[in-house]
Amino acid sequence: xxxxxxxxxAQAVAFDSAVPAPALRARAIGPAVMGGxxxxxxxxxxxxxxxxxxxxxxxxxxxxxxxxxFQAVFEREGAGAVGDIAVSPAxxxxxxAGTGEDADRNDVGWGDGVYRSADGGATWKNVGLRDxxxxxxxxAHPTDAGTAWVAAVGDxxxxxxxxxxxxxxDGGATWxxxxxAPAPYDTRVGCGDIAVDPRDPRVIYAALYARRRTPWSxxxxxxxxxxxxxxxxxxxxDGGATWxxLTNGLPTLTGRIGLAVAASDxxxxxxxxxxxxxxxxxxxxxxxxxxxxxRSADGGxTWTRVSAMNPRPMYFSQIRVDPRDPDRVYVPGFYLMxxxxxxxxxxxLGERVHEDHHALEVDARDSRRLLLGTDGGAYQSKDxxxxxxxxxxxxxxxxxxxxxxxxxxxxxxxxMQDNGTWVGPSATRSADGIPNGAxxxxxxxxxxxxxxxxxxxxxxxxxxxxxxxxxxxxxxGAVRRNLRPEASEGFxxxxxxxxxxxxxxxxxxxxxxxxxxxxFRMTKRGEAxxxxxxxxTAQIAERMGAAGSEAERYGTIYALAESPLERGTLxxxxxxxxxxxxxxxxxxxxxxxxxxxxxVRGGYMTSxxxxxxxxxxxxxxxxxxxxxDYRPHLFRTGDGGRTWTRITGNLPAEGPVKVVREHPDxxxxxxxxxxxxxxxxxDGGRTWRAIGDLPTVAVDDLVLHPRELDLVVATHGRSVYILxxxxxxxxxxxxxxxxxxxxxxxxxxTAFAPLxxxxxxxxxxxxxxxxxxxxxxxxxxxxxxxGGAGRIVVTDAEGRPVANLNAPGTxxxxxxxxxxxxxxxxxxxxxxxxxxxxxxxxxxxxASESQKVKVDVLPGLAPQP
Length: 865
Fold this sequence. Notes:
Layout: H1 2-18, E1 27-30, E2 38-43, E3 51-55, E4 59-63, E5 71-74, E6 82-87, E7 95-99, E8 114-117, E9 125-128, E10 135-140, E11 148-152, E12 164-168, E13 176-179, E14 189-196, E15 204-214, E16 217-220, E17 232-236, E18 244-246, E19 254-261, E20 269-275, E21 292-296, E22 304-307, E23 320-321, E24 329-332, E25 336-339, E26 347-349, E27 357-362, E28 370-374, E29 377-381, E30 389-390, E31 399-404, E32 411-416, E33 420-425, E34 434-435, E35 440-443, E36 450-452, E37 459-464, E38 468-473, E39 479-480, E40 502-504, E41 512-515, E42 519-523, E43 528-531, E44 557-562, E45 570-574, E46 579-582, E47 589-591, E48 605-610, E49 618-622, E50 634-637, E51 645-646, E52 657-662, E53 670-674, E54 677-681, E55 689-690, E56 699-704, E57 711-715, E58 720-723, H2 727-730, H3 734-737, E59 741-743, E60 749-751, E61 768-769, E62 776-782, E63 790-795, E64 801-807, E65 812-818, E66 822-823, E67 830-831, E68 836-844, E69 847-857, E70 862-863
Parallel strand pairs: 60-69, 67-70
Antiparallel strand pairs: 1-58, 2-3, 3-4, 4-5, 6-7, 7-8, 8-9, 10-11, 11-12, 12-13, 14-15, 15-16, 15-17, 17-18, 19-20, 20-21, 21-22, 23-24, 24-25, 25-26, 27-28, 28-29, 29-30, 31-32, 32-33, 33-35, 34-61, 36-37, 37-38, 38-39, 40-41, 41-42, 42-43, 44-45, 45-46, 46-47, 48-49, 49-50, 50-51, 52-53, ...
């Protein structure tokens, strides 16, 4: 046993040291055309051409050329979810980032505290408040670069420490809590916003806010604090030493509150207040009975309600005032609303922008210049909001699900948060790469599951939130809507998850499956359906009726898998803790819930994967972060679900697993998408390694292309990545890792000459996704210690050399590309080699190995003269 343990440890070390880029670096293909959910924007006060855009789950981007181009500057830190960003007016090179998105919706990410940069975002240091989970606001001191205030609203999913208003005066070395709710409610009530008098920073305004989300509910205010009204607006005039709750003219029973101080006249303070006093109106209406917009002209002593406007407080609650005009105020919400008379009269600004606005900044140097952050990316206006430029240069889409077709090159379809479904190529045959224009929008709303019809690949089945099913014909644009199954009048309505699973059958191209609380078999291109299961959920009645956007739909099937080996074998997992299997397409279902490990019973079954080599094998991922459990939960069954084995190994302790996939060529090779990145194992889950060199971002879905064996990675915040040709991982066995050198089998290759494109003549702006490197990837293993520099020689069927490549001897997995002899000329591209089979020989450190590769040639390549 000890010997086996040492052997496994040695394997783990070898794999751990082998997998990093460049051997298996994923390429970013975008898209950036639709943007993603922006949490904050910030101008650089020292450079009129520089500003920052922070994304709720996609890190931070920066421009130094007024939005012509962007660079990701916060993407390798401990969290990708950002709640707020602030640039120091005292020293613009000092930038603060508070992690954890502060919008209280179902798909938010969480953070690990405050980060500070002293070089304009080039590098970052975590400076504390790691247990805050969610930071709603960071305010930088106007004259002291070492001082900042932080509003920590706290963990959305459970009572926790780390909530309140904090201040640092030494650049984050130490923090002092200056405002919190009284115990024991200080673990439930956080600080939702902060505003500081820029002329006298001893005057601070802060809003306390309690909220709590579960998989089936969202509550706030007194519902979280046993009926005690602990929220509201507070003011300190002595730097936070003492505080007074401001009540004169403000309502009680408050929820979320946004604050703003007029820089041109700090006596003018605005508050956007959610209040349940006298009852509530539908948040979608954007008005409140007693809440709304309040204005104070005496520093908060008295308040006047100037408007009932209060759009969807848990999602917005932001208010901004023009730094030069105390009466010009803005409220981002479903739309951007502006007032020129202190909030009494309002008008909508900007009709050609994405809905759902979360961030706005008015440039203090020129009030006509505005930055706007929405669910669909960032916009800039230079005329006070009449016209807007869409800054579609940042790949920050939040994908829920993804799929592929079998084209050459294959296409990808993906559903995105509030940005519909898009179809685009995995690669192009142009030197330009994959431009935004290569992507086509096929559905509005929140895009979810999608797939290409196996018989008609230009027909796409796609869905929006809660199972809304649409068939789209890409050839002529025909759209067939309203395909979702509906219950007959008088019967209980079907409950579809916010991201309802939809699965094309591997065994019958006529069939696909769509799940609500029961499973439906869809036929006749989605026109016909039949239930193939009863209600498979736990049917907890009190958890199935939350009001709101339907994102709290509960008691639904969320995970679904079909055996690639046995027709009729289906696995289903629900959001309320049930797992089932059927071997006859629903004729009889077996409830496996009692066999699950105790710690995940009742949990959110996030992903099921059926084994590719053994029909009794399945994998189950359970994501319980919405109930306050942030641990990864990943299991394998080898006996049809009678028993389960934990295979989380050394996955990060606080990174829930969202999706799992098995390599079709080796069941010991698994891929896991987690809240904080992509991981792989080559030993069945004993040891895991981050792969792909991705940013810190949630991975919501994974697809292994059946032909190419590329791994398509759908991130929830940084669009799509592709890890090309993961065949070698299937061959990374203990025997191979014990060798000094090993050359892996090489997939068939196709030679073509990329069209020249126009990117080199298009300036430096815009966004273009990466094409795979030209030619064919050649992957090899080098054992510990390395082997010095080596050579790769390619010979034809007659044994004549046709290529001679350098082969680095770096320990671990290495990859080089053979360009297949394609040469681009001014008037004509040439190909020196005929199609056929070639031999690739690797010689390194005294060892030599060979593999065959089949090469095809596309029409149009001229033979080399």
